[in-house]
From TrEMBL:
The chain crosses the membrane at residues 95-115, 127-149, 164-182, 194-213, 219-238, 250-273, 279-297, 318-336. Residues 1-85, 400-444 are annotated as: Disordered. Keywords: Membrane, Transmembrane, Transmembrane helix. It is found in: Membrane. This is Sugar phosphate transporter domain-containing protein. It comes from the Eukaryota. Residues 40-66, 431-444 have a biased composition (Low complexity). It is a multi-pass membrane protein. Residues 405-421 have a biased composition (Basic and acidic residues).
Length: 444
């Protein structure tokens, strides 16, 4: 027999206790007292609080079990069919959005290249810097309109002062100007396909400048990857039928400026987190500033006789080209947001291959077998280079996670040392910890 003392509350007495004797039965599950009758009529007289105490005990047990599940790390219930359907729908929507962004980026970017070549070569527009400036001006105008309509997209920043902009943004704008302006000039003398082959040389110079500024650690695998890229680019140049030194040097100058822009962005903007739209808002004016100076210095004499008449006769082509420039920025930002910057570089290579095919089909470009071998070698080197960069990124992420885990363990040890001199948490005083829906502690 087990004897329990139950409180017998009375308005006139402070506390009175009556005894209740319960036979020690054992259920089939092995839990003592689990098969007790739940009918209140079976409880002895003088124990009116038995059913109340039993329900209270069950509530406490339920709360305690919920608290124990939370602390013991028990797995949460599997999502319902409705939740699974919602997750599946979200995944399909994200896949559709990603595919749409990638296709639009490739389509808009290649359309811009072909339209710019049409304006420069077929319309005989002799002001490539001015053409590039139109695209940058349209982009900045669109960002300003977006900021006026939705100020939260480009909030005011206290860390981007006029002095900071001059010392950090202007140098990047200078090399951005060189990338865009010099990148237009090769189309006068080189084929679209050969220009795309030369663009694949960018990782070689980027690694070289990164090593010079100690932003990248030297490793033989990286050197091997860029060596393969350089060799493939050399074969592509040797196989070009309509080779021209002028256009090739202009393209190499554009690649040098692109590599320097990437390196300076890492140095000058280190620790400055910017959304893509913010970056356009602060960087585009610096690019426009140098494009204007460069254009006035080199093309001013052509404005009256060449530029203005062609613009007046073909305004739609220039408006579309400017809008496509902004479209390239938007779609590239979408791809980076959904994937990453490294994946954007991979997609750019795929886009270049598609543009080479378009050059052959639409512009009658000639690609020799030596060029195909060279470009294939370049793609192999680029794939190896990308694999190495992905591996280093994963290693850096794991190292960061290990550091965070070490810091967490150190903090846990401090908590354990502190807890020896502090009282344990009394769960009965924090009933909200076990009563929150879902079994998780209340955050409030």
């Amino acid at each position: 027999m087990a004897t329990y003392a139950l409180p017998n509350h009375n308005h006139n007495q402070s506390a009175a206790y009556s005894t209740l004797e319960i036979p020690p039965s054992t259920s089939s599950s092995g839990v003592p007292g689990a098969d007790l009758p739940q009918d209140s009529s079976s409880s002895p007289q003088g124990s009116p609080s038995l059913s109340l105490s039993s329900s209270s005990h069950e509530a406490q047990a339920s709360g305690s079990s919920s608290w124990e599940k939370q602390n013991m790390g028990e797995a949460s219930p599997s999502p319902s069919q409705g939740q699974q359907a919602h997750l599946s729908l979200s995944s399909r929507r994200r896949a559709v959005l990603l595919l749409t962004s990638v296709l639009l980026f490739c389509l808009v970017s290649n359309a811009l290249v072909l339209l710019n070549r049409h304006i420069l070569v077929e319309l005989n527009f002799k002001c490539p810097v001015l053409l590039t400036s139109f695209g940058q001006m349209f982009t900045f105008f669109a960002v300003c309109v977006t900021r006026a309509v939705r100020p939260a997209t480009v909030p005011d920043r206290d860390d981007v002062t006029p002095r900071f902009w001059i010392l950090h943004c202007l140098p990047i704008g200078l090399f951005s100007c060189g990338t865009l302006a010099l990148g237009q000039m090769p189309y006068y003398t080189l084929s679209v396909s050969y220009v795309q082959m030369l663009k694949a040389f960018t990782p070689v110079l980027t690694l070289l400048f990164s090593l010079m500024f100690r932003l990248e650690k030297f490793s033989w695998p990286l050197v091997l990857s860029v060596g393969i890229i350089a060799g493939g680019t050399g074969f592509s140049a040797l196989g070009e039928i309509n080779f021209a030194w002028e256009g090739t040097l202009f393209m190499l100058g554009s690649i040098v400026c692109e590599a320097m822009k990437l390196v300076l962005s890492q140095i000058l903007l280190q620790g400055l987190a910017m959304a893509p739209t913010e970056s356009l808002y602060y960087m585009t004016p610096a690019t426009i500033f140098f494009l204007t100076i460069f254009g006035v210095m080199t093309e001013r004499h052509l404005y009256p006789t060449n530029a203005l008449p062609i613009i007046a006769n073909n305004p739609g082509s220039f408006v579309i080209a400017s809008a496509l420039g902004y479209g390239v920025n938007l779609t590239s930002m979408a791809v980076v947001k959904l994937l990453s910057g490294l994946w954007l570089k991979i997609i750019v290579q795929v886009k270049g291959a598609l543009l080479m095919l378009a050059g052959v089909l639409l512009l009658s470009d000639t690609i020799t077998s030596l060029q195909l071998v060279g470009y294939g070698t370049t793609l192999v080197g680029f794939a190896y280079h990308t694999k190495l960069k992905m591996g280093s990124s994963i290693t850096a992420a794991l190292g960061s996670d290990d550091g965070d885990e070490s810091a967490k363990l150190e903090e846990d040890s401090k908590v354990c040392v502190r807890s020896e001199s502090e009282p344990l948490l009394d769960v009965s005083k924090h009933s909200s910890l076990s009563s929150t829906p879902g079994g998780s502690p209340s955050s409030g």
